Amino acid sequence: MGTGPTAQRRRLGILLREMRNAAGKDGSAAGAAVDRSAAWVSHLEAGRVGIRPKMLDELLAFYGVTDDEMRREMHQLAVGGRERGWWSKYASVLSTQYSAYVGYENDATGLQIYETLIVHGLLQTPEYAEAVVRASRPGESSATIRKLVDVRLNRQRRLQGENPLQLMVVMDEAVLHRIIGGDVQVHLDQMTRLLDVARGEPHVRVQIIPFDHAMFPGMLSSFTIMGFARDPDIVYVETLTGDRYEDPPEADRYTVAFGDLRAAALSESASVELIEAAVDRAATKLKGAAHAHGLTVAEE
């Protein structure tokens, strides 16, 4: 991928930071040159905001950039970065942080994912996704829930096509036991979906860290390392106080931690066996509940 507005804003920001440094200017001076603050320059260079062509010309002039081809490339990135992604039509229900995440994910070539609580959104069934959204947004309207679930399902299109997103997923075993929303059928369907993916999707690799493993790094929060074709990785971290993004060099420690997590996890084949056990466990629980009510599973 790498052609969406988020990727183009980020690419533009990286180039502008390089130009500013080469010109020996700090963020305050750059901001003053276009009547903006140093904080705005920081956001621009991080790809968080776009820039209009006239202001871009002023910045490039301030940095002493005269190469016509480079200026044309910068303008193309600036225009592309101001376009709207497919997720913009859901802006009314998406936070700024989540919108940014969807944009980065849409442009990434691969993700390294560590999950402690739930199956990752790219691998969720529609019913499981709805249960997760309802659990995380209690009291939310049905219309908003539907839109948020739609976003998750639209994100999954990146796993299709000729060049699907490459996923490497490490999950805590607790994910296989946690029945979101209390619906065993939904849990069974999700575990079956996870098993199908782990067995049959060559671009998705799944490993499970079992309960009986000793302490390991990263066990307090989930995170996703997003890789890109041209630009450095970004790490998305979920925390109690809010989500955040890490760029290099801070992001590098997550790459090391993810390697340690993979080493701590079961092999892919052993992980499949653990997921199979989760499917069997859910099926048995569902059958037991049906019999308790005098029904067969088919009749239920």
From TrEMBL:
Molecular function GO terms recorded: DNA binding
All copies of domain HTH cro/C1-type, residue ranges: 15-70
Provenance organism: Actinocatenispora thailandica
CDD domains linked: HTH_XRE
InterPro entries: Cro/C1-type_HTH, DUF5753, Lambda_DNA-bd_dom_sf
Domain of life: Bacteria
Protein name in UniProt: Transcriptional regulator
